[in-house]
Amino acid sequence: MTRWHAAAALASAASLLTAPYASADPAPQWDGWYEVTFHTDQKTGTSAAASQREEAYTAWYKFATDCSSGTCTASVVDGPTPKDNVPKTTSFTWNGTQWTRSESWRWDCLLPDRTITYDTASSVTNYSPQSDGSLKGTFGTNIGDGDCQGTVYIPLTAVPADPGTDGTEIT
């Protein structure tokens, strides 16, 4: 290595030491009404539930973001009433790149005779903000036991929307 290369390398290293610290971008706000689509028609996984045919479904949810504690949380503040086998409140935490939440609950497993069993499950849901203001994500579930034991992955989309613009009213 020549003296010039050594000096250039040292100068480059010194500039890195004195460069301003680049902090992570602040959490994007997830506020207002969103049309959330659960693309259950595209689900995958190892569970028998992953191969059961379903239609995609959409629901309206209103979100509010709060970063006052130093951790940003986006919570559902209005929307459909949750089913009895899932948590009554829904909040997502910003991890620096996406909104995420984990939960333990009971998967409603539809059996071939059309009866339902409730199997122990844990899920991780992630939403990543898109440049157009929408979010894309995945609802990933591990069903730990029962007839539906295995995994199910459901793609998700959340699009900012004004309730009622498609003829549906939110009350």
Task: Describe this structure as you would to a colleague.
With 171 residues, the chain is mainly beta. It has a single domain (26-160), classed as Lipocalin (Beta Barrel), CATH 2.40.128. Helix content is 9%, strand content 43%. The chain contains one helix and eight strands, in the order αββββββββ. It has one helix at 3-18, and strands spanning 32-38, 57-66, 73-78, 91-94, 99-110, 116-129, 135-143, 150-160. The protein has an eight-stranded antiparallel β-barrel. It is globular and about 45 Å long. The relative contact order is 0.20.
Largest β sheet strand count, sense and barrel closure:
8 strands, antiparallel, barrel
Say what the CATH topology is.
Lipocalin
- Please provide the count of β strands: 8
Given the structure, what is the number of helices?
A: 1
Q: Could you say which structural class the secondary elements and strand pairing correspond to?
A: mainly beta
Structural shape: globular
N-to-C SSE string, H for helix and E for strand: HEEEEEEEE
Q: What is the terminal-to-terminal distance? A: 73 Å
Helical content class? under 10%
At CATH's second level, what is the architecture? Beta Barrel
Estimated share of beta-strand residues:
35-45%
Uncertain ranges = 1-23, 167-171
Q: What is the domain total for the residues?
A: 1
Strand order of the largest sheet: 1-2-3-4-5-6-7-8
The average pLDDT score comes to 83
